[in-house]
């Protein structure tokens, strides 16, 4: 007696899973396809179930070396349920197999934003970093597409934080210090921080200082260990005449790197605008001890000297 064919979406999915475990990837893909058609014909509005079926079929394509269809199915899965780990990882693997390394890197790093303990993503991002550096040199990050910012609700790290942090993520990020100081940034955090900093740099070049401040603040939430991010944000505050914020950011930058010339210069400018000429002169003096021939600093010292006298 012939076996009764699966009669529901769930039965088709379960049977497909069994075929996949048995190494029958083409058969599993066919079963997932039937389940998808049935789900869509029923007019069901169950994006999670549909996303899983696309992701499962993508796994079959990946096993069979069909990377193009794997990417298509993963993209469909992510359109239904953004920031799902499995389709992101499968798409990253497919991109890597197709030597689309910048796209693979973006997906691996996105996974690390969600869960920084995923070993395959850690290894993948490190592997892509080495490959991209070999291909493009020190400026390899400029070749990357934009890395999406994963919302707080999708980040595993937030599961253990107090409820108030769920309510006010933007407040924590804008300070760029409180949350980050309480933990050591992971490899994924550091990568994300660097990417956000570079997005901020691009916005500065376009004169979008307010948006750049947001990017630098997000970067500092992921990792607050880079002096340049603070001094870059200080530049934006300076352009917006937010002089007290300039002083705060430059002070933090100098705490991390006592020879950050830009931080000394920007804090000196802020002190001058605040009419704290002695503090301004002290910062210029410290800067010129590091770079005696710094022309802008020499000019600023003359201006501050005139105000002191």
TrEMBL record:
Protein keywords: Chaperone, Cytoplasm, Isopeptide bond, Membrane, Mitochondrion, Mitochondrion outer membrane, Phosphoprotein, Repeat, TPR repeat, Ubl conjugation
InterPro entries, per the entry: CiliaryAsmbly_MitoImport, TPR-like_helical_dom_sf, TPR_rpt
A family per Pfam: TPR_1
Membrane topology: Peripheral membrane protein
Gene Ontology CC: cytosol; mitochondrial outer membrane
Summary of subunit composition and partner proteins: Interacts with HSP90A, VCP, ATP6V1D, KIAA0665, AMPK, and DMAP1 through its TPR repeat.
Function: Plays a role in the import of cytosolically synthesized preproteins into mitochondria. Binds the mature portion of precursor proteins. Interacts with cellular components, and possesses weak ATPase activity. May be a chaperone-like protein that helps to keep newly synthesized precursors in an unfolded import compatible state.
Stated name of the protein: Mitochondrial import receptor subunit TOM34
Taxonomic path: Eukaryota, Metazoa, Chordata, Craniata, Vertebrata
């Amino acid at each position: 007696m012939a076996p009764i064919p699966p009669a529901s979406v769930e039965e088709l999915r379960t049977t497909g899973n069994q075929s996949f475990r048995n190494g029958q990837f083409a058969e599993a893909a066919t079963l997932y396809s039937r389940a998808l058609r049935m789900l869509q014909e029923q007019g069901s509005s169950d994006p999670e179930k549909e996303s899983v079926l696309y992701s499962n079929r993508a796994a079959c394509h990946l096993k069979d070396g069909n990377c193009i269809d794997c990417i298509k199915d993963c993209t469909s899965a992510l359109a239904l349920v953004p920031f799902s780990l499995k389709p992101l990882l499968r798409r990253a693997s497919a991109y890597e197999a197709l030597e689309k390394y910048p796209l693979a890197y973006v997906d691996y790093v996105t996974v690390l934003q969600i869960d920084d303990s995923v070993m395959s993503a850690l290894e993948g991002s490190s592997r892509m970093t080495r490959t991209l550096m070999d291909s493009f040199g020190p400026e390899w990050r400029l070749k990357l597409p934009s890395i999406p910012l994963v919302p707080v609700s999708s980040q595993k790290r937030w599961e253990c934080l107090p409820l108030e942090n769920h309510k006010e993520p933007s407040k924590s990020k804008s300070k760029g210090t409180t949350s980050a100081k309480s933990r050591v940034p992971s490899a994924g955090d550091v990568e994300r921080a660097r990417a956000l900093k570079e997005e901020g740099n691009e916005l500065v070049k376009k004169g979008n200082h307010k948006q750049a401040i947001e990017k630098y603040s997000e970067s500092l939430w992921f990792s607050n260990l880079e002096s340049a991010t603070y001094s870059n944000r200080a530049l934006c505050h300076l352009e917006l005449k937010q002089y007290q914020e300039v002083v705060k950011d430059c002070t933090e930058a100098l705490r991390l790197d006592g020879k950050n010339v830009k931080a000394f210069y920007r804090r000196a400018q802020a002190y001058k605008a605040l009419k704290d000429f002695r503090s301004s002169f002290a910062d210029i003096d410290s800067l010129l001890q590091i770079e005696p021939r710094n022309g802008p600093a020499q000019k600023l010292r003359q201006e501050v000297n005139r105000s002191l006298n």
